[in-house]
Amino acid sequence: MDLATLLFPNVTETPEDLESRYPQRQLAEGAVVTRMAPSPTGFVHLGNLVQGLVAERMAHQSGGVLFLRVEDTDAKREVAGAVEVLIDSLKHYDICFDEGATKEGDQGIYGPYRQRQRANLYHVYAKKLVQQGMAYPCFCTEEVLTAMRADQEEKKVNFGYYGSYAVWRDRPIEDVKAAMDAGKPWVLRFRSTGSIENQFKYNDLVKGSLTITENDIDHVLLKADGIPTYHFAHAVDDHLMRTTHVVRGDEWLPSLPFHLQLFRALDFKIPKYVHIGPLMKMDGTSKRKLSKRKDPELALTYYKAAGFPVSAVYEYIMTLLNSNYEDWRKANPTADSDSFKFSYKKLNPAGALFDYAKLCDVSKNEIAKMDADTVYALAVEFAEEFDPDFALCLKRDPDFTKAIFAIGRGGKKPRKDLATWLDVKPYMGFFYDEYFVSEGFGDKYAPSVIRGALEAFLAVYDPTDDASTWFDKVKAVTTQIGFAADMKEYKANPEAFPGSVADVSSFIRVAVTGKTNSPDLYTVMQLLGDKAVQRVRTAIDSL
Question: What local confidence, expressed as pLDDT, does residue 1 receive?
Answer without folding.
Answer: 59
